[in-house]
Design a protein that fits this description.
The complex is a heterodimer of chains A (about 500) and B (about 270). With about 500 residues, chain A is α+β, with helices and mostly antiparallel strands. Chain A has twelve helices and twelve strands. A five-stranded antiparallel β-sheet of chain A has the order 2-1-5-4-3, with helices on both faces. Chain B has two domains: about 90 residues, no CATH class; about 150 residues, no CATH class. The chains are: A alpha+beta (about 500), B mainly alpha (about 270).
Chain lengths: ~500, ~270
């Protein structure tokens, strides 16, 4: 500005020294400082410089008009006035528009760069506010963005209820306030909504002591729209990245699960093959013996009995596999319920085990004249076989395995039959309970109940506050009776 | 930040709110009565001048003080001081020193922080005061050069006492009341409603109108055009000085310098 002023004074001094009147060629030199001021300071600078040039040249031009009227020289001087004014103002206007466009593009680039990095909303707003404060040349700037029910604020602590920002957020319309309450110089405030998908997702508010021109307000509205879109894009990108990360985690978990299932399937096939191979090997071996050798009749009978037993075992395994397949498909195991007498079934099963064990004494206790039960004979046989074999397996050698059936009364008054097995070693109660639990899965349609030993009963009693059950178990312990497993059939 | 913290309500009061209409009416009636009585030769002619000065400058200064929402008595005191100064100045050149009374009163109110809304009593940088000096000097220099070259009006050195009395009048009444009202009150209020350009246009137009109806302005076309030219520039520049500095002091300085230069010309 000092250079401009000095140049104007210098040109005026040269014109005065030349003393060639208003048509001096040096008058065109005024254009240099006027243009410089317009290009440097915009329309204000250009206007002021041209006005100063006119003022400085007026003492040369106006006296000529008063002395001689509108001579050619005087007209040239007046044309110079007009040219200076037009050049100063128009150049300033063009420079101002150019500057505004440049600033707008710079602001857009700044917005995109600032929001390119993935960061929490508060941090992004703070960065954006700092970047915009440098570009917009305002005294105060605040950015508010809706984050669900919360308002993220950059440039202040909170949004007061009836404040300008709250109003803009509610109405979605920009508001210009020409007097923001300052005592000295007039302070302007302007708030514009950050628009995204047709609704206000935040507010950009600026304050300046001095003017916020109409052009600046339009530019700020455009900036608000761009910031709104940029924030929405940043939010969408963040959501997309989060979704991709979640999807990757889920795919990884599913792959792990599939690998586990594959391993379990391989283990199952191996176990099933091993279980099938055992009876098949026996059948194969004994059948080859029968085919290749001549054996005494009693030996043939014995081998046939063994083969029959192994064939039944093989059949049970295949039945179990079929049941498992049905259960996996969500179907119940195929049961063919028929009325049958329970005592002969028990006796037949016990007879099989009596022949196969010499270490345990198996006894049966059945109440007389038991009614018929509705049960699948094969399933019931499997249940009883499982029950007795486990009782033998987990009872000490030489102990007795009582086996019986009694009439039972249910809580609802429905009658049923209860089969029970008891062993004398109370230490195997937990293992027996586990086995019985497994038997329940395999013997659907039947219900079992395990009465635990003293310690187990005390724990369960405290958990369920079942003092009565604990009392019963204590009574069993005092009587010296062993824990027992029961299975009920309808 | 105001936009976040403070409640917002659209402005409800109008531009001329708080105008002391009763006082203005009283001044108008007094001036009119004095003019009539002087016309009827009931009172001596200088009474009309005293009443006119008191009514014109008193009205401007009283309105400015009323808009600044100082105490109700302050505008009346300002009017009384101006009237007193106008009356005393009729006694002689030294009597014009009485115009310092209104200036001291305004300075007293400013020192107590009562006139910050007029831009008085607020901090101001020396640079802005220097800018005011520059504006006043530039316009004064241009006035002196162009007046001497185009109008043939030259600087007179033989009426120094009258010039000093006129300068005292400018400092204590003319410039003080004009700047307080047209810039400190009117422009300040207008700028809080409209843009700088609109506000300065309103204030400067009113400023020009005030001087064009002034009976003391010589009724010569050249002088009236010159007055419009310089007063328009002075008014616009003082608006810019107030808007950029937030203080009325640079405008007071520039206007005082300009009118001081004007008083050195032998304009009748």
């Amino acid at each position: 500005m000092r250079l401009v002023a000095a140049a104007l004074v210098a040109v005026t001094a040269l014109i005065a020294l030349e003393d060639s009147g208003p048509a001096s060629l040096l008058r065109h030199a005024y254009l240099v400082p006027v243009l410089a001021a317009a290009l440097r300071f915009g329309v204000v600078g250009g206007g002021l410089a041209s006005a100063a040039a006119m003022l400085l040249s007026a003492p040369v031009v106006l006296p000529e008009i008063e002395r001689s009227g509108l001579t050619t020289e005087a007209i040239e001087g007046l044309v110079t006035f007009a040219v200076l004014g037009l050049v100063g103002v128009l150049s300033g206007v063009l420079r101002g528009r150019l500057g505004r466009h440049r600033r707008r593009y710079e602001i857009l680039v700044t917005i995109q760069r600032t929001l390119a990095d993935e960061a929490p909303l508060d941090l992004s707003l703070a960065r954006l506010r700092a970047a915009l404060a440098d570009r917009l040349r305002v005294d105060e700037i605040a950015l508010v963005a809706c984050d669900g029910e919360r308002l993220a604020v950059a440039g202040g602590a909170r949004v007061a209820d009836r404040s300008l920002v709250a109003r803009v957020l509610a109405t979605g319309e920009p508001v210009f306030v020409s007097d923001a309450g300052a005592r000295g110089r007039a302070r302007r405030a302007f708030a514009t909504p950050l628009m995204s998908r047709g609704r206000a997702v935040g507010v950009l508010a600026v304050e300046r002591t001095g003017e916020i021109s109409v052009g600046e307000r339009v530019a700020l509205e455009a900036v608000g729209a761009h910031v709104g879109v940029a924030l929405e894009n940043a939010r969408l990108v963040s959501c997309q990245r989060r979704f991709a990360a979640e999807l990757e985690e889920r795919v990884t978990a599913a792959r792990r699960e599939l690998e586990e299932l594959d391993r379990a399937k391989s283990a199952f096939v191996a176990i099933a093959s091993h279980e099938l191979r055992t009876p098949l090997t026996a059948l194969q071996g004994f059948s080859e013996i029968l085919a290749l050798r001549r054996l005494p009749p009693e030996e043939v009978t014995r081998l046939a009995e063994v083969m029959r037993r192994e064939a039944r075992r093989l059949g049970r395994i295949v039945s179990d596999l079929l049941d498992l397949s049905r259960i996996e498909r969500g179907l119940e195991p195929a049961l063919c319920r028929v009325p049958l007498e329970i005592e002969p079934t028990i006796e037949a099963t016990v007879d099989l085990f009596r022949q196969g064990t010499a270490t345990h004494l198996i006894t049966t206790e059945c109440e007389p004249s038991l009614p018929l039960v509705a049960a699948d004979p094969d399933a019931l046989e499997r249940v009883l076989t499982n029950l007795i074999s486990n009782a033998i397996k987990y009872s000490p050698t030489g102990s007795s395995v009582p086996r019986g059936c009694a009439r039972a009364r249910r809580r609802g008054g429905d009658r049923g039959r209860r089969c029970r097995a008891r062993h004398s070693d109370r230490g195997v109660a937990a293992r027996l309970r586990a086995l019985l639990s497994g038997a329940r899965c395999r013997g659907r349609g039947a219900r079992h109940r395990h009465r635990p030993g003293r310690r187990e009963g005390a724990r369960r009693g405290s958990r369920r506050n079942g003092a009565r059950r604990q009392h019963a178990d204590d009574r069993h312990a005092r009587d010296g009776r062993s824990p027992r497993a029961e299975r009920s059939v309808p | 930040m105001w936009a976040l913290d403070q409640p917002y309500a659209p402005r409800a009061d109008h531009l001329l709110a708080d105008t002391p209409l009763a006082l203005l009416a009283a001044l108008a009636v007094g001036a009119g009565t004095a003019a009539v009585l002087v016309e009827l030769a009931v009172l001596p002619p200088h009474v009309s001048r005293v009443a006119g000065v008191t009514a014109a400058h008193g009205a401007l200064l009283a309105t400015a003080l009323a808009w600044a929402r100082v105490s109700a008595a302050s505008p009346v005191i300002a009017v009384a001081l101006i009237g007193l100064a106008a009356a005393v100045s009729q006694l002689g050149v030294l009597g014009s020193l009485a115009y310092l009374g209104p200036a001291l009163w305004v300075g007293f109110l400013s020192a107590r922080g009562r006139l910050t809304s007029l831009g008085l009593g607020t901090p101001v940088s020396l640079g802005r005061v220097a800018a005011g000096v520059l504006v006043g000097t530039g316009l004064s220099g241009h006035l002196l050069v162009s007046a001497s070259r185009t109008l043939g009006v030259h600087i007179r050195v033989d009426h120094a006492a009258e010039a000093l009395a006129a300068i005292a009048y400018d400092v204590g009444a003319n410039v003080l009341a004009g700047e307080c009202f047209f810039r400190g009150a009117l422009f300040n209020r207008a700028e809080r409603r409209w843009s700088f350009a609109a506000a300065s246009t309103v204030a400067t137009s009113a400023y020009l109108l005030r001087y064009l109806v002034d009976p003391l302005l010589p009724k010569s076309v050249e002088l009236m055009i010159g007055a419009v030219f310089y007063l328009a520039l002075l008014g616009a520049m003082n608006c810019w000085l107030l808007s950029s500095s937030g203080s009325l002091v640079p405008g007071l300085v520039s206007a005082s310098i300009f009118f001081a230069a004007y008083r050195t010309l032998g304009v009748r």
